Structure formats: C-alpha cells, structure tokens
Amino acid sequence: MVAFGKYLQRKQIEEWRGYYINYKMMKKKVKQYAEQIRGGSQHPRHVLKDFSRMLDTQIEKTVLFMLEQQGLLSGRLATLRETHDAVLEQPDISKIVELRESYRDVGRDLLQLLVFVELNAIGLRKILKKFDKRFGYRFADYYVKTRANHPYSQLQQVFKHVGVGAVVGAISRNLHELQEHEGSFYSIYDQPVLPLQDPVVEAIKTAVDKLTNSTSFLNFLAQHALIMQDDLQTPSEDTIDERTYHFNSLLLNLGNTFLYMVNTYIIVPTADDYSMSLGAAATVCGIVIGSMAVAQVFSSVYFSAWSNKSYFKPLVFSSIALFIGNLMYALAYDANSMWLLLLGRLCCGLGSARAVNRRYISDCVPLRIRMQASAGFVSASALGMACGPALAGLLQVKFKIYKLTFNQSTLPGWVMAVAWLFYLVWLCISFKEPLRDTEDQERSNPNETTSVTEREENSRAVEEGLRKPLLITSGLKVEDEDEEDCDESEESAEDSRRPANSFGDAYRLLTPSVKVQLLIYFMLKYAMEILLSESSVVTSYYFGWTTSSVAIFLACLGLTVLPINILVGSYISNMFEDRQILLTSEIIVFIGILFSFNLFVPYTVPQYVISGLVMFVAAEVLEGVNLSLLSRVMSSRLSKGTYNGGLLSTEAGTLARVVADATITLGGYLGRNHLLNATLLPSLVICIGSIVATCCTYNSLY
C-alpha cells in the first residue's frame, strides 16, 4: 500500500508531468475548505462552486493535452499510410513486417495515453471521494452526472473518446490489411480462415471499453438488479476465466428467473375463483398468493448458502420443487382440498432460486459482460411479470381427461409443471458447473511465464494498468497520505473484505441511509402487491370484470416496466439527482394510493385504472432509483457470502409481499365492500412514513 500522490508521481511520464491533474494541490485545497467552513469564513455553497471550478480547470488541462496527443498520433498514422501505399504497390515482406511494427508502436503509444487518462481519472475519483468524506455531501454523484452528458463538458470528451476510436480503427484496419497481404505469399492453409486481431489492438479495445461511466439504460438496469460487486474489484483482478464462462448456463440462469416470475403471477387473475371453488372466501386468494412469498423468505437463505458450493444442484432442486408444487396446485381442484392448494404454493416458494440467479451473475459472469447479464436479469423478471397474467388470460378453456379437470383455475398449474419439466431436462443437458478452484490452480502454476522480453513486459504492464473502470472503483492499491483519513475509516482493510456471517452482522453494516432505502423498498413492494393481488377481487366486485379483463389489466401493468426503466435510465436520471427522483416518486406513489380510495363518489373504472397505473409506474421508477442507490452505498462486505446485499433486498421485498397478502385476507373479514379501503390504508401510512424518513435524511445522507 502506497500513497496515491506518490504513486501518481512515480507513474507520471516526465515530459507529460505538467498535464496531470494536480492531486496534491486539490487535496490541500479540500483541507483548507474544511478549516474555512469550521471557522465560518466560507459558506458551503461558495465552497462547492469554487471546488467545481477548480475541477473543471484541471480536467480541461488534461483533456486538451489528450486531444493534442491524439492529433500527433493521427499525424504519425497519416505518414505511415503513405509508406503503406508504397509497400502495397511493390510488396516486400521485410518492409511489411517493419510497417506492422510501426503501427504497433503507435498502438503502444496510444496505450500510454490511455494510462495517462486513467491515472487522472483515478485521481479525480479519489479527490471527489475525499471531498464527500470531509463534508458529508454526495458531491461526486452531482459532479459526474452533470458533466458526463453535458455537450460543453470536457469530461464528455473522456467519456465518448471519439478521437481514440478513430485512431484505434485506423491501426486495426491497416494491421489487418498487412496481415492479409503478408498471407498472399503463403498458401491459404498456412493461416487461420479468420485471423485473430493483433494483441495490441485487442488491448486498446479492452482499455477503451473500460473508460466509460456515463449513465445509460443498460447500467441503470444492471443496478436495478442489485447484483452486488466487491468495491475493490476491477477487470484486471477479475478471477473469472472467459474460456470457462458458459453462455448456455447463463441463459439457463435467466430462464429460471423468467419462469419463476411467470409462476408467481400466472395465478393472480384466477386465485379468487379457485379459492371459492374449494369453499373458501374470495379474499383467501391473499393467502394463496402470499404462501409462495412466505416460503421464499426461508428459501432465499438456504439457496444463498447453497450457492457457496454449487449452482447446478440448487437450480435442479428449484426446478423439482416448482414442478411438484405446480402439480399439487393443479390437483387440489379434483381433490377438493384447500390445504393441498396451499402446500403446492408453499412448495413453489421453496423453489425460489432468485438468490442463486443473482449470485451466479455476480460470481460466474466475466466483468466485461456482467452489466449486460444484470440487465438481462431485470428484463427477464419484467417479462415474466407481464407474461404470467397474459398467459392466464389465454387459458380460458375447460375439459376433462379421465378424472383430471383442466380449467382456468387448474391450467396455470399444469402449464407451469410442464414448463418446469422441460426446463429441468434442458438444465441437466446444457448447464455447466463453474470451476471454483481458480486460486489453487494459480498457485500450482507459479512459473507459468518466465521468459518474457522487456518490451512484452512493459506492454503487458500498460495493458493491465488500463483494464480498470473510469471514475469508479480502482484496483490500484494506494491510500491517501492523511493518517486522519485512515482513522476515519469505519472498517480495516481486512474487515472490508470479510463477508457478513449472519443477518445481525449484515444489519450492523447498514448505514442510516441504507435502512431508509430498505424501508422505501418495503413500502413500494407492499403497495404493488396490494394492487396486484387484490385486483381480481376488487374488479369483480365493483366492475364485474372477467378473468380475461383482469389478465389484460395486469399484463399491461407488467409491460410498463421496461419502457419506464428506459425513460428513467436514459433521460430522467441524467437531468435530476437520484434523491430528487426518489422523493418525487414517493410523493406520486402517495397520490396514486390516495386517489385509489373509494370514499364519497361511486367507484369507477377510470378512477381505479388511472390511480393504479400512476401508483404502479411511480413505484417502478422508485424501485429502479432506490436499488441503484443501494448498489452504490451498501458496504463492500455485503458483496460476497451468504448474507449479501442481494439477499437483504430480496428478504425486504418478500416480507413486504407476505404482509400485503396477509392484509388482503384479514381485510376480507370486513367484507368485500370494505376490502379496498382496508388494504389501502396501511399502504398510505407506510408511504407517509417513508416520505418522512426520506425528508429527514435528504440533505445529509443522499
């Protein structure tokens, strides 16, 4: 561990020394700001304005130098192009080899330039982090977000790196041309049909891919999944070998996510009719729907622990449990047994492998495509949520085979049982258990590369140094010079790596802001579950809706999930701070709940549909922003182990669903005419509580 200031000084290229950000000066300035605010000689707003101006100046200096160097590299490429054309007219193998090496030299110089950009980005990240720690203000989020997508921001040049792309394209194309021309001297069988890219070009492309951190829809969806990552992990430290990564296994993992969400919501439009056909009240549908969530509270824990040892076995168990659970659900009609119906749903809940789904993406997908996989997880969940009710609406038939009844109540169970059986077969054929002994394998080959030339060593060092993300966590093991910053740290270096060993341990790692966000997550899941689970009972009582009408309504709600995430991830989150979106969404959820009450005027379809849609859409926006915040502020110790951040969020949401479904059943004792208001009242109270908690922590914690 070395101080970053010293590390930066040691890594600087001598002739470029004046163009790096002045990290030491900015660090002293932060100390000076702190003293001035304590002494009352400076207003915090003036400090923020002055610090922003200083950062803008430092970044401008760095970016303009980067553009100047890109121009020099472009000039060298133009000169090489003239030589290139001459060589093509009079082919000479020695000149071709020499020209290819010249192109590689330009590529290596470009890699050095990218190292320059990355070192400055790390310095910027560290000084922003230091500023936030000193003043308790999330200035880093504000600064990056307002500069990253503004057309006149110098930071925009780093994010988009258009000039770098042009240089990379020129180097790549010319090297490929020379490779093809060189091959013309030999038989076609002496070279691969599809030649590999030059290693220098691959290294540059890898580096460029990591130099992007602007807010995007894909990144927003990935954070929505709340797949926690170690705060110190970087691509260069990624222990997942891409050669052992198995795409079909990832598809099977996402398939489990999709089918489980379909299984959860496919019974919602018909649960009240099924309950009544077995002699129970329509409002018992709350227990029928919620029993799956009750079992999921416990299954999430043992699946999370099981995933420490295997992924294949938990997924097999999940498929078998869901197959059996759906069979029991379907057979309950002919057995005329409410207990068999509930046991079937409990069995389905015991097969909830969402903790495994999250963990597989976090641990077994290479960092290069982990964001896409996380976005796929959210998309699969949203698609399953929409397809479940839609599929129930299509199963409006009735027939018998021997003594088995197939109707709108039992067909969801039969269809899902068949789906899980096919999935189980596909799983057993195609899933590949990831290797877990990477560290032991590395220890067994300590002398894997012993004879490497000095140029290759330098090139590798440059490439490795570039495989790190911009403005986010860095793998450089550096620390700040200030001992007081080390004293302010709540966790030692070793503790920050040790995962939580129990729910109590995990709870102690939660900061006040994280607790508020988990409360918000509980609130929105509670409100959404009330809306979805009681929809068939409420709409049949007030409007006389059929199962098909309820299914269409629920499917339309589910189809809003991805468009809303696109809108928030691509546009709204670039224009407003997350805390602003968070509070606004909570207020809109409150308004949606308030207008859903049946008070003084006859209850109408437009009132129910519009208020429900407003509440659901606002809750979806709130969920995305809330989980995005959680993924950034949770302790790094919650990124690994059984009791991880994903498990905590899953448990909070599942408990909310359990309480909501129990509320529906209890509200049924007041009569169907009072059910709507009786279930909306707790939603309103919890929503008010979350708004108050957000307002209390708005300035100091977000």
UniProtKB/TrEMBL annotation:
Q: Name one GO biological process term.
A: transmembrane phosphate ion transport from cytosol to vacuole
Q: Which residues cross the membrane?
A: 250-268, 280-303, 315-332, 338-356, 377-399, 411-429, 549-569, 581-601, 607-630, 680-701
| Coiled-coil portions | none
* Entries under PROSITE patterns matching the protein: SPX (PS51382)
Q: How does it sit in the membrane?
A: Multi-pass membrane protein
Q: Which PANTHER family match?
A: INNER MEMBRANE TRANSPORT PROTEIN YAJR, SPX DOMAIN-CONTAINING PROTEIN
Q: What name goes with this protein?
A: SPX domain-containing membrane protein At1g63010-like
Q: From which organism does this entry originate?
A: Raphanus sativus (Radish)
As recorded in Swiss-Prot or TrEMBL, the protein's gene is named LOC130494562
